[in-house]
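Recall the central idea of this unit: under ordinary conditions, the amino acid sequence of a chain determines the structure it adopts. In this exercise we apply that idea directly, starting from the sequence alone.
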Amino acid sequence: MKKFVALVSVTCISMVCFGGSIPATATIYDANIEGRIELTARQKPKVQEILNQSDGDLERVLRKNGIDPNNTQPPVLKLLVASRELASIGRRTRSQLAEILDSEQLRQYDEIIEEVEQRIKKSVWLGDRRERGRNIFD
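Accordingly, the structure predicted from this sequence is:
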């Protein structure tokens, strides 16, 4: 169980996915960073650029690994396969944002990512329980 929690934690921390404004069809990965952290006029375009790049990279990794970003219960094993790349994107994103955000904004960012992490953990756990006995690679 500890390995499962660690896997989901690493995967979730990396998923600032869809950090910009929430689309009409929000996913479990949506963080709405720009809508929840008050940014200055100078910060906004820089943050948007970082989040747009991360969004694209994360969606590419999810799809490459057969994970539909709109799936409310992503397959655990597919997340495991993608976790290293996802974590790398998450670390890069946080590092880039740390150069732009002040300490309070970065704290808020970390809280938002924690919320997304909890949402994904819950979704993966529920999906895993419902899928027992079925092919977990589907």
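Residues 42-132 form one domain.
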